[in-house]
Specification:
With 100 residues, the protein is an alpha+beta fold. Helices cover 51% and strands 17% of the residues. It contains five helices and four strands; from the N terminus they run H-E-H-E-H-E-E-H-H. The protein has helices spanning 3-13, 30-42, 55-65, 83-92, 94-99, and strands at residues 16-20, 47-50, 72-75, 78-81. Strands 2-1-3-4 form a four-stranded mixed sheet, sandwiched between helices. The N and C termini lie far apart (32 Å).
């Protein structure tokens, strides 16, 4: 299976997927930690993928989304954005609407 197919399968199999550095319980960068903190306010469960554990996914997700940075949030198989976008969407109330 190609990297693109792997990423496509992950975002289709899970309602909310966060590609991040580290894990939900142990983020490895401040931006990933910030998105986890935001998602934790809204959701009990969501899938996280540690891009540091798999360089193929780390590089592949940037190509897949055409977005250069990590973290990357997908909801309903749709790319939402990175840390700054998620933060702005939280302030505007848009993230709550997207997450349902």
């Amino acid at each position: 299976m190609s990297t693109e197919e792997t990423i496509q399968n992950l975002i289709e199999e899970h309602a909310v997927v966060l590609f991040m550095k580290g894990t939900r319980s142990a983020p490895q960068c401040g931006f990933s930690a910030r998105v986890c903190d935001i998602l934790d306010e809204f959701l009990d469960e969501y899938m996280t993928i540690d891009v540091l554990a798999d360089p193929r996914i780390r590089d592949g997700v940037k190509t897949f989304s055409n977005w250069p940075t990590i973290p990357q949030l997908y909801v309903g198989a749709k790319f939402i954005g990175g840390s700054d976008i998620v933060h702005e969407m939280t302030k505007s109330g848009e993230l709550a609407a997207v997450l349902g």
